[in-house]
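Fold these two proteins, one after the other.
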Amino acid sequence: MTAAERPAGAPVYERIGRTYARTRRADRRIAARITDGLGAARSVLNIGAGTGNYEPRDRSVVALEPSSVMLEQRVPGSAPAVRGSCEAVPFADATFDAAMAILTMHHWLDLEAGIAEMQRVSARQVVLAFEPNMLVDFWLMDYFPEMRDLPTERRAPRVDRLVELLGGTASVEPVPVPADCTDGFGGAFWNRPERYLEPEVQRNTSNLAQLEPSVLARGNARLRADLDSGAWDRRYGSLRALDEYEMGYRLIVA
């Protein structure tokens, strides 16, 4: 099977995230930025849609998702969903006013093909991604350095590369992560380190969920020890007082 034939992201999310919807709920502030990015678009394709977070409710939306595990967790009343790959979108040219891809491109097996498909089926593209060289320095890597070597993390595209592939003139806007972010993605608990020790959070955060059990247990022990001793707070406790944190997440609109 070629990369163009394989549903991007499916191998990971068929194994993890079976309780994804419990900790991955759209954050209203991030949702507002995405909605602004969609502009006047009335029809939207959500590529790598997962359980449906960030799909606008006031527009005609179709979701495209490779993982049956994710599709099964979409709540009643969600937008209609199709199982399929970002690299072979099953819609005709210019079907949608906009296509959105939210924290998904590091799972794509063929980035260039996926972006070409976005451009083929839509006039406007809205992407939420992260700058790899910033997230790789996140304090969580102190405890789980093995995350740096995961295929999904190594495959994460630089923002300037995304802008280039999207035509070179896309706008780029920083998306700070709120202190009380409700969406438990990789950097969401930057000021709530205790949350990273919760088994459900770990199961539903792809970079933690992909670690070997022994690696995860070793990192958990280090983090728990530093929290118990106060070492984490001595190094990073100032983060607890911030309202938001700039971690390298970016909204890209082309």
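Now the second one:
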Amino acid sequence: MANEVKLPRLGQGMEAGTITRWLKSEGDQVAKGEPLFEVDTDKVTQEVEADFAGTLLKIALAEGEAPVGQTIAWIGEPGEEIAESAPKAEAPKVEAAPAPKQEVPGAEVPGTSSSNGGRVKASPLARRIAREKGIDLHQLRGTGPEGRIIAEDVEKAKTAPAPAAVPAGEIESVPLTNIRKTIARRLTAAWQAPVFQLTVTADMTRANELVARAREMNPDVRITVTDVLTKVCAQALMRHRDVNVQYTEDALLKFPTANVGIAVAAPQGLVVPVVRSAERLSLAELAQTRGDIVGRARDNKLTTQDMEDGTFTISNLGMFGIEQFVAVINPPQAAILAVGATVDTPVARDGAVVVRPVMTMTLTVDHRAVDGAEGADFLRTVKLFLEDPALAL
């Protein structure tokens, strides 16, 4: 009897996922551990490896959403029987929402016109790729269920020479991805939490000198201020464990190690991959780890494990010239540090005015988990470590 391929649970709390692409076709040979399909969860788009070796006999769900545990394909020997009792998944039918009336004369409602006057059947991912490549979905033949256009159909199509300009007055409808829906849901929850902010400035003279020396000693690794921030925050969290927590309705989860999340503006949306046990890593090791997860975030190659168990987050917008801002907490974490640009600033030193590289940091804290004095003491330690990094190394 052929082996059933079921949609796996890729992370805590995952109840369903959306299959976006199969990396193998029916009849292809599959090795155990070989990437088989891509699934879009509420956190990342991730490749799923095959649990069995053999021939991909049948794909039950070419594209679309399925609950965890549902059978989506079978792998076995050619001609092997497929269990009749196995649940056969079907791609969810997408009903077109009524198109709003346009007030602009001659403007056409996007995504509703076709040769037969109906909506083109296409997955949200296929529509996004088509927009990016300037491909007219009306000209494609879908290979998905009921002739639905899937991402692979668009990727195989010839890219148009130049995307047509959007007609004046036309509204573009961009479907929300699972990741974007999750961002909206989590930030809404974060906005409802009772938070407070604390702001300090730090003289970055010694921190900048440390970065320069570390780069000289490790020419193959790009060490940055973010790596120094990650290190000093991790060490500060070990000194102030009451800040290194996750908030739940029943308890505060106090972690024995600092798992520091780095906010990354990736193409698919804001993601926060985690550097685990950051307090134990050297600056060079932190730079290598940070470079790896940030690169995979921008290539949409993160796994759900990369995003889990964070205890604190750093959001750095200094590279954009932003001098100060307030970040929104990343539930269930209790604190996030917003980091601005380092700016040459006149400051008083020993009765004289001198110019120093100064960086502004704002700590946003969930008051349900951390009190003001605890947050202030933690931020004071971060400032101390930045101004004298030897204390943290």
